[in-house]
Amino acid sequence: MADERPVKNKQNKASLGTAKVVPVVLVLIVAYASYVVVGPLSINYLFNPPENVRPRIAAGIAIPILWFALLLPVAVTYLRLLLIVTRDPGYVPLGSEQLRRAPPSEFWMRDVFVCDPTGKPIWCSHCENWKPDRTHHNQDVGRCTLKMDHFCPWVGGVVGERSVKFFLQFLVQAMILCLYLTIVMAYFVHEHRSNLQWDIALGLAAFFLFFTLGMVANSLHLAFLGMTTIEHANRDATLHLAVLLPPELQPSSTNGLPDEPARVARPSSSRSPEDEDGESERPLTSEIDDPSHSRYFINNGPSRAIRRLAKCDAWRGTITYPLKNTSDEPRAPASQQRTFAILETPPGLNPWDLGTAYRNFTSVFGHKLHHWLFPFRAASTSAQTSDVSAYPLGPQFEDFLDDVGLVEYNSSALTGSTISSSSKRKRKRKVDIGWQNGERPDGYITEKEIRRQKKEARRLRERANNDLELP
């Protein structure tokens, strides 16, 4: 996309000013709490107690040490969070009106992307650039942010894809720190009720304890759902998705019409001798097609499939990329074209819900415990290099394709077949992995190459046999 340039669109200066002041206020509050723990509590009361109160040297040493031990990870995480938020929480580069002529290939070379009702990616008129999936424009900073969650003045700006993990880590650690301070100050306020500074520290600790507790509960809830705050607020809205049509419905290289359906692998009980290697003749143009979703329109002609799709409530038409910029410009060859179905999801569908709370959580925090605890690694964005979609897609999306008719099982072919239950489970796991990781299933390239080699060897054997039969 376009290079960075100074922001010219409208910003909310009041919000930006607040975002600069609030972090300073938080630092001052923590400094005051540290002063109360060390000075009025430990030194003035535990080390040098009033009359009729015995000194408690061990407690006077242990309480400040534990306070600073809990404060250290909070400070490190908050500094890491501020660094990401103030520099780049995941901003989309600013563009120019010239980019609106045609969406870049990074959108339509994937098999699924979020689009508008016409099938084009969503255009931001403020940033003058195309918005990737799950991107939202924030009026406070005047920028589009990848996987934007919300604007938070407590951390100095936008919480987005690169900062949401550090944000939740900071909340959890701050909640633990506030809990410790609340317990300590409540105990000594109950014991000795004539210290105003203790009362102030207790009030601040209790306020931020309940505040961070609510934020942690809400943030974990959204992380388990695989949603951002903005997506949850708009959870009853619909999305338009551009989904790549299977190869048999792609434009033909001869007449611009869809080709006839390619032959697919049959169950082992019905294979002919020439297919005993089990390979599929279906063109391998997309991860949606093979091997994860090789059951498109089985035994149906293209015209019948299109007619059935057009009757679906979610169907909004098709669009073929690359687009022609002018009417005089010839369209790209059919071999380079990619035709997408424009589908509107039902209200409440979340295509990025990976099916379980654990999978949704680890998609942000990673799979290792030290990634959950320490602010050293940003949220994973490896799916953005996938050929399937910008973010991993879950079972709700696959069920949606099934309801639309883009994915179906050939129940008649499976009836009476000798496919074992273990084979079905293996095939089901392969489908899930292909979508949920947002990448090619394991062994995809290897299996494709093996099929190609087998097909080439069979062709050479047939040619050799034909040569021997010639007089």
Automatic annotation (TrEMBL):
The chain crosses the membrane at residues 21-45, 57-79, 166-188, 200-225. It is found in: Membrane. It catalyses: L-cysteinyl-[protein] + hexadecanoyl-CoA = S-hexadecanoyl-L-cysteinyl-[protein] + CoA. Keywords: Acyltransferase, Lipoprotein, Membrane, Palmitate, Transferase, Transmembrane, Transmembrane helix. It is a multi-pass membrane protein. Residues 122-234 form the Palmitoyltransferase DHHC domain. Pfam families: DHHC (PF01529). PANTHER family: PALMITOYLTRANSFERASE ZDHHC6 (PTHR22883:SF23), ZINC FINGER DHHC DOMAIN CONTAINING PROTEIN (PTHR22883). Belongs to the DHHC palmitoyltransferase family. PFA5 subfamily. The DHHC domain is required for palmitoyltransferase activity. This is Palmitoyltransferase. It comes from Meristemomyces frigidus. The lineage of its organism: Eukaryota, Fungi, Dikarya, Ascomycota, Pezizomycotina.
